[in-house]
Amino acid sequence: MRRLLAAATLTLTLATPFRSAAAQRFPTEDPVLRRIWSIGMDSSHTMELSAALLDSIGPRLAGSPGQRRAQDWLVQTYASWGIDAKHERYGTWRGWRRGHSHVDLVSPRVRSLEATMVGYSPGTGGRDVTAGTIVLPRFADSNAFVRWLPEASGKLVLVSAPQPTCRPTTDWTEFATPASRARMDSLRTDVTREWSGPDVRGTGYSVALAGGGLARRLDEAGVAGVITSRPTNAVGTRSVFETYNTRSPTLSVSCEDYGLVFRLTERGSNPRIRMNLDAESLGEQPMSNTIATVRGREKPDEFVMLSAHFDSWDGASGATDNGTGSVTMLEAMRILRQVYPNPKRTIVVGHWTGEENGLVGSKAFREDHPEVVKGLHALFNQDNGTGRIVRMDASGLVDGDVHLRSYLARLPMEFQSQIQYGGTGTPSGGGSDNASFACAGLPGFSLGSLGWNYGNETWHTERDTYDKIVFDDLKANAVLTAMLVYLASEDPTMIGRERVDIVKAVEEQRARFAAQNPNAATTQGPAALQAPATWPECGLAPRKTAPRLR
Ligand SMILES: [Zn+2]
To answer: What distance in angstroms lies between residue 121's CA and the mean position of ligand 1's atoms?
Structure first.
């Protein structure tokens, strides 16, 4: 009965609003594009692949046993489709095993807190540790901070902003009077400013910036641990704190429970928290990318690449960062295997690791594969959530613009109307793995997704789970990617490497932004517009854990 029900649900869920191939308006007669659409839309495997990766295997933190299990699953999955895939070793990175996190408020009342260790944090050796709390005060200067440190010894230090509300912004937009909404906005801005930036609370240390040093300085002062929280009602487990080499653990607590503990502490109720945290540091662990390859028949030394980082933070299962990007590329390869088994150019999939640690795997691949650098025709990267792809540009390559426009013109009208094409554009200076190629003037293109509240809700939080996936969009992304890869592989000419005049291009972008946002200050707008108008540097791939993190 349950199986029947599941099948019914599956069929129901997968019977999407997308029109059948027959009904879909294709600008060309190309039968391969039509078959890609049918297979991808009518018999999608995105749900099964996502369930196996995210629910059964789970998060893929760099250096963790979970990452290795997931990479082995990748190789087996490709093998089941007759595609050659292998692990390509490029270095090492700190290893860490996450066990349980049990965190309870035990005084002035008992409550199990929504809290977990941040990635790479030491545990309590599986023992119960109970400690009082203290809020990081505002200091006149860093000397005052040093003089205060003995007061924090043996205590849990609260180092994040106490949010005035844990309601989603949409509640305030919908229900608040304009006056109270404005008041809440300014309160949130002030509180965030007070607790972030390079000099938090006058300590001389930053919290959010990796290597910021505050957690390490507190640890040296003998604190029982550090308690953090993310602005929205999600728990952030991204280890921006150099927690690996500290003795005391760092916890991330939900907005609600962090506010509770903060207020109890501020009001002198002397809350006490009991932690039992199981974690193990594993030392330097081998790091590899998983690379799948289908050799080209006519131009085997020219490459079309699919790119999506496979590692994730581990507060949840890394569903939208970057499970959806990984499943997009996997599913695109499954489809291509059926409709385009003998590509003209060699098709390579880069399932990178170490992206969250600084685009490490993709940089290493570029450094280790001069043949791919020489023969790279196009690389398509996806890494910003489950939403349907709505943005593309040519990463600053003049000829790339010409080729991409020709591909877009051959896509089904559904996709053409969905994508805002940005023209030649400029190379992104970071953010995701396409940057590891664009920085070298290579055709590394980003497939930008529609938000679905990615930054607030799922990005590096413990809410990044299977249920956050929008399968209609994910399925369409796999079909669109398969089509782009097919068109790029069949492209009669190679994309040229002539770079845009970056100074002129950035000026144009700034002018466009100013025209679209007349009230915005020049310091506002996308980070790219703030950065000096230069071609981004590549930087070397760290082949082992960066010293500051060791
Ligand atoms: Zn990512």
So the answer is: 21
Question: Cα(5) to centroid of ligand 1, in Å?
Answer: 34
Residue 229 C-alpha to ligand 1 middle, in angstroms? 20
Domain boundary among 235, 270, 305: 270
Give distance in angstroms: CA of 187 to centre of ligand 1. 30
What CATH number is given to the structural domain containing 341?
3.40.630.10
Q: Is 291 found in the same domain as 207?
A: no
Which of 233-242, 244-253, 362-371 bottoms out in mean pLDDT, i.e. has the lowest? Answer: 233-242
Do 252 and 122 fall into the same domain?
Answer: yes
Among candidate residues 270, 303, 334, the one where a domain is terminated: 270
Q: Compute, in angstroms, the gap from residue 366 CA to the centroid of ligand 1.
A: 18
Cα–ligand 1 centroid distance for 232 (angstroms): 19
Rama region for 142: left / alpha / beta (φ>0; ψ in -120 to 50; rest) = alpha
52: CA distance to ligand 1 center in Å? 19
Q: Tens digit of pLDDT for each residue in 251-302? A: 999 999 999 999 999 999 999 999 999 999 999 999 999 999 999 999 999 9
Residues 66 and 142 occupy one common structural domain = no
Q: 280: CA distance to ligand 1 center in Å?
A: 25
* Inside any domain, residue 57: yes
Residue 239 confidence (pLDDT): 46
DSSP characters for 313-360? -SSS--IIIIIHHHHHHHHHHHHHHHH-SS-SEEEEEEEES-GGGTSH
Over residues 107-135, the pLDDT tens digits come to 999 999 999 998 889 999 989 999 999 99
Q: How far is the CA of 503 from the centre of ligand 1 (A)?
A: 28
pLDDT, average across residues 141-160: 95
327 found inside a domain: yes
139 vs 128: CA distance, rounded Å? 32
Pair 158, 278: CB distance under 8 Å: no
Q: 312 with 263, same domain?
A: no
**Same domain for 376 and 521?**
yes
The total number of structural domains in the chain stands at 2
The Å distance, Cα 321 to ligand 1 centre, comes to 5
Parent domain of 213: 109-270
CA dihedral 531, 398, 491, 392 (to 10 degrees): 40
How far, in Å, is the centroid of ligand 1 from the Cα of 308? 8
**The tokens of 154 are what?**
């043996």
| Residues 116, 75 share a domain | no
In the reported structure, the alpha carbon of residue 130 is separated from the centroid of ligand 1 by a whole-number distance in angstroms of 35
The rounded Å distance from CA 35 to ligand 1 centre is 30
* H helix or E strand, kind and range, residue 227: strand 225-228
Please provide residue 107's backbone torsions phi and psi, each rounded to the nearest 5 degrees. Answer: -155, 140
